[in-house]
Amino acid sequence: MILVCPSCSTRYLVPDTAIGVEGRQVRCANCKNSWFAEGPDTVAAAAAPSPPPQPVQQEFAETAPRERRTEEPRIEKPAPRTPSVEGNDPFAHEPPFKPRRNPAKMWTAIAVGLFILLAAGIGAVAWFGPPGFLSGFGGRAADSALDVQLVRSPERRTLASGHELLSISGRIVNMTDEEQRVPDIRAELRNAQGAVVYDWTIQAPQTSLPPREMVEFNSAEIDIPRNAEELNLKFVPLEGG
Asked: Is the pTM above the cut of 0.85?
């Protein structure tokens, strides 16, 4: 059957089964106008011509020559698109599916995320040192009245000049009720196998420490080995004692 849009007069050729006997609501794909399309039986009944009137005189009807009617062929305007029917219909103008994802964009986003994580990990190693760089130092000796402690984790970073700097901050605590002499501190850096790869001496911040008191110290070294993973601090034995 043929549907004609009452708004823009666009004609559509659709199967009778798409509209049904009782008709249904349709929408023009050209101007988006919506109207109720009658069923094919209703349209055929409305378009059927009324029967011609009966001749008044039988004799005239028999003898009069019959007028020969000719019909010009109808040229139907081709329907560019099928009108969309409201609801889930196979003749809908717009397909009821979601657009496919672009795999190239998805893999690009994943690659960018991995690059950011890798750059952050490299920056953290350059600033704070390798993940295995620990503060596992000796601390208080068995026969010592003093204890050496780290205030915070060692800070390892690269300077603008390109040199690598290691700085540590700690404190010395007098664990007794008597005044104690404060010795220097030996700092050792060890690799993964436990071998010493770098060492230096931290000068005592003061010569003696009152009972139950503590004193802080700071130290920094440049161009330490990159394979250093463990820091060890211990007191240098005092002369004569």
From this structure: no
